[in-house]
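My main concern about presentation is that the manuscript never shows what a single data entry looks like. Each protein is reduced to its one-letter sequence and a matching series of backbone shape codes. For the editor and my fellow referees, an illustration may be useful. For illustration, here is how one protein appears when written out as sequence plus structure tokens:
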Amino acid sequence: MTIDEARMRIVTSIGTIYEDDEAKNIAELIMEYVTNLPLIERIVKKNEALTPKQEEVLEQALRRLQNHEPVQYIINEAWFAGMKFYVDKNVLIPRPETEELVDWIISDFKFHLPAGKAGISDLEPNSQFQIPNSRLLDVGTGSGCIAIALKKNLPRAE
């Protein structure tokens, strides 16, 4: 089976579960997982055959998709705040709504910056400015995406 045939097989196999555009997006995620190739290389190599191991991984992924398992759990990754996180069935998949909450927290902190400072990282290391409520607590961390995104964007917060 070629890379292109495998991609089409995924779309066909999950076409009754997902709408067409979503099935195509899931197929691309699975194909990147199976081949370890970015999209452009998969397009260039679309007529190359999958290895037996890749076909085995594909079949396992298809079974899981057909059992309505989220693609993020199959490929063990989810994007949040521009960063890739490891996820599995033991943690919740980061949601766009949660990312909005993190953006709101970051914006709220930056709103309280001294004039002329665009972000926390713009402050001098020994600055007297203190982030209001500079201690943050993430309870039930799961994938850690909230704490990591906040620390990345608010490095002086505790």
In short: The two ends are 52 Å apart (CA to CA).
